[in-house]
Please model this.
Amino acid sequence: MYQTKYHKPASVDEAVAALSSAEDGKVLGGGQTLLPTMKQHLAAPTDLVDLRGIAGMDAISAADGVLTIGAGARHADVAASATVREAIPALACLAGGIGDPAVRSMGTIGGSVANNDPAADYPAAVLGLGATVVTNSREIAADDFFEGMFSTALGEDEIITAIKFPIPSSAGYTKFPNPASRYAMVGVFVAQTGGGARVAVTGAGQDGVFRAEMMENALSSSFEAGALDGATVDSRGMLSDIHGTAEYRAHLVSVMAKRAVDSAV
Amino acid sequence: MSDGIGARVERKEDKRFITGKGKYTDDVRVDNQAYAAFVRCPVAHAKINGVDSSAAMAMEGVIAVHTGPEMKEDGIGDIITGWSITSKDGSPMQCGVWNPMVTTYGRYVGDAVAVVVAETQAIARAAAELVELDYEELPASIGVEDAFQDGAAQVHENVPGNLIYDWEIGDEAAVAAALEGAHHITEMKIVNNRLSPNPMEPRSAVAIFDEAEDHYTLYTTSQNPHVARLVLSAFYNVAPEHKLRVIAPDVGGGFGSKIYIYPEEITCLWASMKTGRSVKWTSDRTEAFLTDAHGRDHVTKATMGFDAEGRIVGFKTDTLANIGAYVSLFATVTPTYLHGTLLSGCYDMPAVYGNVKAIHTNTVPVDAYRGAGRPEATYSVERMIETAAREMGMDPAELRRKNFITEFPYQTQVILQYDSGDYHKTLDMAQDIADVAGFAARKAEAASRGKLRGLGYSTFVEACGIAPSAAVGSLGAAVGLWESAEVRVNPVGSVEILTGCHSHGQGHETTFAQVVADRLGIPVDNVSVVHGDTDKVQFGMGTYGSRSGPVGMSAIVKALDKVEAKAKKIAAHTLEASEDDIVIENGEVKVAGTDKSMAWHEIGLAAYIAHNLPEGMEPGLKEAAFYDPLNFSFPAGALICEVEVDPETGVTDIVKFTAVDDFGNIINPNIVEGQVHGGVTQGIGQAMLEQVVYDDDGQMLTASYMDYCMPRADDVPSYALDHNATPSPLNPLGVKGCGEAGAIGSPPAVINAITDAIGTNDLQMPATPLAVWTALQNAKSSMAAE
Model:
């Protein structure tokens, strides 16, 4: 039988302790990926460390040009947050478009970012905004955090506590949902920042979320959709499945990037 | 009568459904309950050399692990098919043997190999993972075209070339001659995509063996519990018919997939006897994708010839039908007599010919699914005529009008005789509602936004009310397709209808009650409908093929005729009047033209108290009837789909969908419209979203909703519906059936609209964004090449 020991720590330290003493422990954020995976017997952790009992993990605040979102903030919280809507409307919009109402009422930003599903929305925002992932032991720049499909720089017993997003002058996110699952088949986050334009693509790449450099260069000189004419991504790096060939995904990256720029506020 | 025929009575059954109080098979909990989980063949074709259940048996809570050879030893029979087809050379069809659980060869991914019975569902499922199969993988045939190639892997040793039958209908020579002299010929390869039925409630069974009584009870998700009992007893030897009770309680959708009696139900009954426990099994969604009978999966080459005026001179189709690894209950008739007989469409075709080759593959069995053969025929006919119109530079509606059948009854060249219809007026109405006249302006406006607008038609006819027993018997059916009813008037005048039909979403509790309410003038709330239990209801054939209206309700009418005749005799006797002067109106039984009357409940009371009945009359008021239809009924309709395609992404938006149908007389417009909504939505699903995909090794790539795309509310528009009824002259209510029409008629309307929008006809279903974008790219590059 599949048996799992459930922990509900009251602090990050307790959570880390529970995790490090477990044989094969997993952190439970909102459970929107982990629990279905366990139900299908595709994952069978010996211990589940539920972060939802840790006070303050879902705090959202903005100060000094940085929006900080606690790892336990649920997608619905982020979508509805006046702070997020004012600081980075594109991020609120992205959160409001994840999954369905049930998923948004349970799933958390920390869980999504830690899981780094290649078709998840949040990684595009984290990378596209050049955010910083804060853990119990350190801060990791987005560019160093995502290491490929379902793979991140997180250490074995490391827990994300918050994400710090530098507030851009404008940003936009547009996704093309997979017709069946409605995960992002191609999702493009564009941001105009002090350091130039950033373009991050989720759903499409074989190695998970990535930055589209040719598009960043084009937008850095002129942040408008027309600047992206001729700026492409290489289809050789794209995923291919029954819903979208690599060529189709590469094409959609260009289309979604333009639409993201058009929608940017 | 406000509750009678034609009234929008709210569905009586919805209170329990929408408050979560429906009682489904999985809700059944009995004493001594154990749970089954199946160990399934992991590859498309394998020789199973051994099953090692030792690790599973060692798990706490596991009661038993059983396999196919043990079932065989106990005399459990092989799974049968219900319709024998004869090939065009006169030879009988060849089918592979289907053991409920594998005895030697597993022939598709999901084929049941062993069953684990355990104390809980979780233990049963976990233990099933520990059962080790020793198997040798064999070459497999997956796609229907590949399976019919020379040298293809054999699915069954006794079916050479995987060819089950090579059947034909119509006059091949006449069609060849007509095409020879045709002014214009349209040819196409048409693929009818493979679908998974996806009823909301997955299949489930609870089998209860009572050792003291040697009696079995099976709760199961069935559209036809009596047929299940008959087949389980007569062919599968699970129990004698009188020692087996089958109950199909609330059933959450079927679409055909719950007609059949599957390995799991048989196994649960047998395992209940083996273990002495009640055995429950409920499919999970992936198991449903892997093991529920699929639908469609035809590849057709079609040729249609026209004279200079645009009249059809001949139509020919050659079809490969994928039957899957085993021949399911109605799998053989779906591509033949439910498909070939509809190839004339609603057109006066002087020559028609259809050839169908049924092919075994290493995939789950394919059988009837909402529409069953008629969607495949309609898709071929309606894609062809629309394409021909474009090729000949004619308006597709006008080309249809030139060929419409206008006189009824109409004898087609492919067996059927259509009962009634008014195809021109139906199309007129649809064109008005769809504002076809304004389409050009809408197209131009869409173009100004960079969007491609298209409009497509489907004018379909289909055959419902399956079916006259002697006629289907002569064509190979093993059963008759009549229906039964019993009308019981209680002493207080309320009425119970016992029907052999089965409601799994259709709303029989409401419509059937309306028929009684209309006839007797009593409120629908005084009428209850009993169905779905072989201990309660007389033998009946169940619900499929849009038959509950034309066949099931006709049986009720026949029984009501008898009830009414007896009621009139009682009234005439009591009121001292002539029987001929008695009328039943507004809940009263009256002497016409006088103030003498009895209330309906007084008739019931008189019948059961029996103090003063006419001499020789038996007490009581309860009558039964069996109704065997004279013919199919022929619903028809005109559907118009208008779409807008985003050429950058290939995304299609259905901006308007118009359906004007002829279902004959309508009992409850709400329910009929609901059926159209559901049917058209499933048709849009087939046209744009749904497809079962197996990879080359026979692993299913679409075994969950992550990859199998069901229609959602935001995929479909708000439908514009109307009706143009021409009552069927062949049944007492003049009804035609409406359950399948939407799914039958809509796919070609959608594809005709999309291909009109994108300006290329090179598009197969499902027209996903990828498919539409690819078609646009191909059209661009072939234009560039020219």
About this structure: Chain B touches chain A at residues 59, 122-123, 125-126, 129, 648-650, 689, 693, 701-702, 705-710, 768-770, 773-774 (CB under 8 Å). The first helix of chain B runs from residue 14 to 18. The mean pLDDT of chain B is 97. The domain at 15-138+200-253+258-291 of chain B is CATH 3.90.1170.50 (Aldehyde Oxidoreductase; domain 3).
